[in-house]
Structures are given as C-alpha cells and as structure tokens.
Amino acid sequence: MTLIEPEKNKRSYVTAITLAVLLLVVLLTCVPYLVSIALAEGPAQVDRADASPIFGVTIPPGYKQWELIAPAEEAAPLDELRAVVGNQTAIDAYQAGKLPFPDGTILVKRAWKRKQSPEFASATIPGAATTVQVMVKDSRKYAATGGWGFGRFVGGKPVDEAQHRTCWGCHEARARSRDYVFTRPAP
Amino acid sequence: MTLIEPEKNKRSYVTAITLAVLLLVVLLTCVPYLVSIALAEGPAQVDRADASPIFGVTIPPGYKQWELIAPAEEAAPLDELRAVVGNQTAIDAYQAGKLPFPDGTILVKRAWKRKQSPEFASATIPGAATTVQVMVKDSRKYAATGGWGFGRFVGGKPVDEAQHRTCWGCHEARARSRDYVFTRPAP
C-alpha cells in the first residue's frame, strides 16, 4: 500500500493540473467573446410611449451608425434634406437586389430642414432635425400592410395615429413593385 | 537509480502535459484575434494611377460602409446631392467636438446628380454618381496644407493636378476655424 499511495497522489496531481489548465483554456478562450457581448449595444428598454400607434414600431438603437442607402431632398413646404440608412439585413437585401426584403429589415429615414451654408452660396446643409421615419419588415406581424410596420417620430416621440394611418396607403399605391419601399440605393 | 528513474519520468510527463495544455491555451486564446485580423479589410494594393496628384491620396476601401456625418445639396451648375461619411477616427473626433482632427482622420464626400423622383413630384433623389472627394489628415506629411491631403476622383480615377491645386486655398480661406473642414455633423 505504501508503494501505491504516492503513485495515486501523482495521478491526482496530474489530473488536477490538467483540469485547472483546461479551465484556464476555456476561460481565456471565452474572454474575447464575453468582451464583445458586453460591449455590444443591448436592446434598449423601450417605453410604450416611444412606440408608434397601430404598428408599435420604435426607433432602433444605433441607427445613426447604419450604412447610408441614399440621401434625398424634399421640396417646400417640407423643405428638407434627408438620408435613408438601413440595418445589415436591409443592406444585404439591397446588394443582392432581391425582393421582397426579408423579415428583420429595418430602414430609417433621417430628415433635416434645408439650411443655407454660411460658407458657400451654392451649398445647402442640414438645419434642425425634423422627423425620423422607420419601416420594419415582419411579414406575419404586419401582414395587413405588405409586411411593413411604420413609425414616424418627432423629437424621439411617435406622431399621432391619424398620421400613421396615411403611411401604408401611399407606399401601397406608389411603390408596390419594389416591396413598397421608395428608396433606391445611391449608385 | 531504478527507484529514481520512474520518478523522473512522472515529472517529465507532468511537465509535458502542462506545456502542451499551455500551448493550447495560448493558441485558443489567440484564435478570435487571428480571425478578426484575417477578416479585417487589409490595405488594398494601390496603383499609383489611383492616387491623387500632389497629395497621393487614394479612395479608402470600405468607405461606403462608413457612418454618415451629413448630407448636403449643391445648386446648379453642379446640381448635386451629397453625403459626407467618415472613418471611426473622424466620427470620434466629431463626437468629442475637439479640433484639430487627429492624424488618421479620413472624410469622404460622395456626390450624385440631382434627379427627379419618379414617384413624388416633391422629391429629389441621387442620379448618376459624379465625384468622390477625400480628405486625409496627416499633420507631418501634409504640413504645408494644414495637415490635410486631398483627393478628387471621377469614375474611381483622380482628376488632374490643376484641380487638386484648388483644394487647399478654398479650405484655408473659408474653414480655418474648423480645422479646414466644411462639414458639420447633422444634428
């Protein structure tokens, strides 16, 4: 027995070291992922008052970092500069050129009053922000409106139900052939 | 000696396992970083013909994915819609509101002919792409021009030296107080 016991201790020692180092492997391997997860923008707490009437659409977090699809200009009386951006699902769909847009697509149109550049007579630049308009594709949830939910926001808050009732009719009438989306990608 | 030899073997065994597992730790820990590095956009091979005269500025890869700083409009005769985007260094500098912009800042102005929307009388959308204009901050390399290198591209190729000679004078005269950058971030 006295000959076997040290042998057992050695084995336990080897096993313990191996397990400890394996645990270290797992932990260290996970660190970069855990850091990525911690740094990623989580789903923001959404107040119901921040969701659009009828559709329940909210302003998506981080949309200002999204890729530009196209700028635009709207004549008087709105007199605005605009820029439509999209999430990665939207960008991928535009690049593939396939319609309809897949569920999960989100488009955001930012808008500003047109303002004379103080440096150039010929240049017009963004003045005050006016509306943020959002389209969210969910073919089940929004089956009655071509798969799209709409949200129109002023100062971060949705406008009234009456205004939201006008979205679908116009998109349906004028952009049916492009899955009800007006914006084409800028070349 | 016959009693000591197996003891030595055990130790070598433990050492070997420990080293092997440590190597595994290091390798697995590095994998995510190596993958990130492999997936990151490397510096593209740049033909000298693609670099602007005087400054040697090229169109930065991936700029279409960069964050929007502001759209703009340019009246006739250019008659353009525009969008200025920036790399992360530029975006961080704008957000911090600190001037001058740090070395490594890159701004890209995309431009398109204004085009009547086929769906809306009041809407103007991007037509054909016209110029891509690039500003690169390198306070040593471009010390003679406020730290900025300029590139103006049509169809992916730089315009001539005469046109590039006009960049600095205008930026110097009209935008000195903002580190020679015209574009303000859209609110």
UniProtKB/TrEMBL annotation, chains A, B:
Membrane-crossing residues? 12-35
Q: Which InterPro entries match?
A: Cytochrome_P460, Cytochrome_P460_sp
Which residue range or ranges hold the Cytochrome P460 domain?
A: 60-183
UniProt keyword terms in alphabetical order: Membrane, Transmembrane, Transmembrane helix
Pfam families membership:
Cytochrome_P460
The protein's name: Cytochrome C oxidase subunit III
Which organism encodes this protein?
Answer: Bradyrhizobium nitroreducens
